[in-house]
Fold Anaphase-promoting complex subunit 11.
Amino acid sequence: MKVVIEQWHAVAAWQWDMPEDDMCGICRNPYDSTCSKCKFPGDDCPLLMGECNHSFHMHCIYAWLQQDSSQDKCPMCRQAFKPKDAASTELE
């Protein structure tokens, strides 16, 4: 018996693997969603985790840090916001 596949429609779902709250602290949209500037979740709207372990949509935190009133601090804990090194995140 020989089977021939004539059509195939793949379906997939994804979500961010985040240990804490599942919403961006700035736009209050879920991580699986997008910031207000993006149409589709994924590579165009990645998450950015700070050394303080707070996570935000990349566009949200960059817009926040460009404001003079932010003083380059995390909006959640008010520590100086520095992106966590990607190499150290993979080791955890």
Observations:
- The chain has two helices and two strands.
